[in-house]
Amino acid sequence: MKQNAPRWLTPMTDYGPLAVFFVAYLTAGLMVATGALMVATVIALVVAYVVARHIPKMALFTAILVGIFGGLTLVLQDETFIKMKPTVVQLLFALLLLGGLALGKSPLKFVMGKALDLDDAGWRILTLRFAGFFVAMAALNELVWRTQSLDFWVTFKVFGLMGLTVLFIVAQIPFLKRHATLEDETQSD
């Protein structure tokens, strides 16, 4: 989001459609929840644009994938597609990060550089860690949706993936402190 955007806008854009999906699933089932997710995602993009005059790239990317996988789920009446969406999203994130590193760039620094000030080694290692995490989450999503009930998968998608992501980020704090650059350069790695 642009800096002049209100603080509530990013969480609303990121998590509002997921909350709508979960409530719709509990009340009306997966197909209705998938349609609700698609509508809520579009509404979130419209609100983001109206409020901030900007649509975040990540939200747009997610909306495109929700449209593709949600559309396939509804048109073919096959829940497999919506279950595969988190896998595809996670793998695309991993490929983007690894591809950026292969090209000598740090996509993570581009996205998070204003929030974190790390040395080059820190950005490289953090990017590799996030790529590995995304691959692990993709594999875990595949394991869960292929071996567990639909109710379990929905709960995992809504709460498990988010919880694991928060735990992963919290686990990176000591690493971030070791690789933080200070303006006065009094701390080194």
Detailed description of the structure:
By secondary structure, this protein is an all-alpha fold. It folds into 2 domains: 1-76, no CATH class; 79-189, no CATH class. The chain contains 8 helices and no strands. Helix 1 packs antiparallel against helix 2 (30-52), helix 2 runs antiparallel to helix 3 (57-76) and helix 6 packs antiparallel against helix 8 (173-179). Mean pLDDT is 89; it is low at 184-189.
Keywords:
globular; 189 residues; 2 domains; disordered C terminus
Topology (elements, then pairings):
Elements: H1 9-28, H2 30-52, H3 57-76, H4 80-102, H5 107-112, H6 120-147, H7 150-171, H8 173-179
Helix pairs in contact: 1-2, 2-3, 3-4, 4-6, 6-7, 6-8
